[in-house]
Amino acid sequence: MALLGHDLDETALTAAARALGSLLRGGELLLLDGAMGAGKTTFTRALAEGLGVDRPERVTSPTFALCLIHPGPRTLVHIDLYRRGEADDVQQSGHTGGAGAAALGLDSGELAGPDKILAVEWAEYWISPPEDHLRIVIVRPPGVAASRTLEATAAGPGAADLLDRWIASIRRGTAI
Amino acid sequence: MSEVPLLLRETSGEGRATDRGPRILAIESSCDETAAAVVEGGWVRSSVVASQVSVHAAFGGIVPELASRHHLGAIVPVIEEALAQAGCGALSGFDAIAVTEGPGLVGALLIGVQAARGLAAATGLPLFGVHHMEGHVFSAMLGDDALAARELEPHLALLVSGGHTELCEVTRVGRYRLIGATRDDAVGEAFDKVAKMIGLPYPGGPAIDALAAEGDPRALSFPRSMLGDPTSLEFSFSGLKTAVLVHLETRGAPRSRQELADLCASFQAAVVDVLVAKARRARARLGLGRVHVVGGVSANRGLRAAMAAAAEEDGFVFCAPPLRYCGDNAAMIGGAAAARIVAGAAPSVFVHTSKAIDDPRVLLP
Question: Cα-Cα-Cα-Cα dihedral of B329, A57, A153, A118, to 10°?
């Protein structure tokens, strides 16, 4: 696991997200973890700006819709599994993640593709995501509104390369 | 000079023209309500909604697979009930079928769309897909036995629901321009998530609205996001959500009903202040004489009262649909389809999960 930033304000967090967005080439899977209010949607919006989707200002929380698609030279597929995790009974019956992901076509790869980037909020509810993914964790310290810690873990060679380039990009930048 | 809220208006019978407009069977299944309606133009002959709220309340929110399963079980009885209530034994004398084509949960949308396609194929009637938010725009125009239908006039629509928080300039049917929207959470989502934090049941809006009426909106100071920049028409509710979280972390959960009511009142006041301030700003900028608040959150009493007061002060007409048409329903889909048909729209269905109301496929030339 790599620590990308500590005690970040919103400007620094979104700068890191924009930097990551500008490094994406298509086909990447980004799993976003963080408690309610951590900043997953804010991160994704800045990521979309860096990626260059047509309307980054239209990135909003997909909690209600589950999946919002943002077209561009590389399409951003923005997914939110929050509602999956809320279903305790469904969790107990063992359907969490699997069935929800199946309903979205995640397991069949329908939403993924060489020209698409998948960003998944509340990704901890996706039990068995594809092997190559970058897990991004945003943590807000209790009792504090405007400070975040940003960490990432790469699984698989593609994600490892992406993480290396992201770290290098952040080091070159001045925002963090 | 605000007008009397629609739900308080007396039966006038004005909507009962002999030729009200195209007779349409409309179907809606984009989220957790399975609904069907029979309309003639903007006049509602029947509107049946099978809600799944009790099903999802146990889970604190909507569970997509459960939603699809319940739509599947409900869709045919709901359509039959809508036809029966309208006094129509069959689809004779109808001009069209309309269905919500998006945005929404794809598994849920497809159940309504497939039912509509089947009926269209069996009857030969044209099938019109309607954007869900365009339906909400027309929810404020509907008439029925207790309410006169009204013509669409240019207005600013504040679309507020579980998935949307948008300011939209409505010039005429099929001419929509989004001029502001949320940067993060939708307002209904913020209500649901804050309700969950403080242990209130899903859906959070009605529970918070009821408690807010007992509380002091000045008890706690929560942020009014995005109000500082006078040019901005954007909304943000995630910072408010975080502020409530930080409050709970530092001060603990409310220890009495009064503290809970004060928290609800203070949270709701922060939401309503921003919604009303942006709507006033946008209306003044566009020079429109009307503001319509539509979508599920338009049922919020605090929001209605504040908009009515703003209308009085600024001199615009404020309009919100009666409560029966605030939440998702099929009558509004029928009303929008009728207006599109009269405007010459071609029948087509384009199922999508996330197109905005000003997408070229929704607009009319």
Answer: 50
- Chain A residues with CB-CB distance to B246 below 8 A: 143-145
SS3 content of chain A, % helix, strand, coil (to 5): 35, 25, 40
* Beta-carbon separation of A83 and B62 below 8 A: yes
Closest in A36, A65, A89 to B353, CB measured: A65
Record the pTM: 0.90
- Note whether residue A8 is domain-resident: yes
Chain-chain contact of B107 with A103 (C-beta, under 8 angstroms):
yes
Architecture of domain B4-147+326-342: 2-Layer Sandwich (3.30)
The CATH homologous superfamily of the domain defined by B155-321: ATPase, nucleotide binding domain (3.30.420.40)
Question: Which residues on A lie below 8 Å from B183 (Cβ)?
Answer: 42, 45, 57, 60
Reported as a single tens digit per residue, the pLDDT across B191-229 is 999 999 999 988 899 999 999 999 999 999 999 988 888
Domain with CATH 3.30.420.40 in chain B: 4-147+326-342, 155-321
Interface of A with B (CB under 8 A): 36-37, 39, 41-42, 45, 57-58, 60-61, 63-69, 82-84, 86-90, 95, 99-100, 103, 140, 142-145
B225-279 residue pLDDT tens = 888 888 999 999 999 999 999 999 999 999 999 999 999 999 999 999 999 999 9
How many domains does the structure of chain A reveal? 1
The whole-angstrom separation of Cα B94 and Cα B216 is 52
Backbone angles phi, psi at B290, to 5 degrees: -135, 145
Q: In terms of C-beta density within 10 A (0-12 exposed, 13-18 middle, 19 or more buried), how is residue B313 classed?
A: exposed
User: What distance lies between CA B125 and its chain's CA centroid?
Assistant: 27
Interface contact flag, A42 B238, Cβ < 8 Å:
yes
**Is A66's CB within 8 Å of B241's CB?**
no
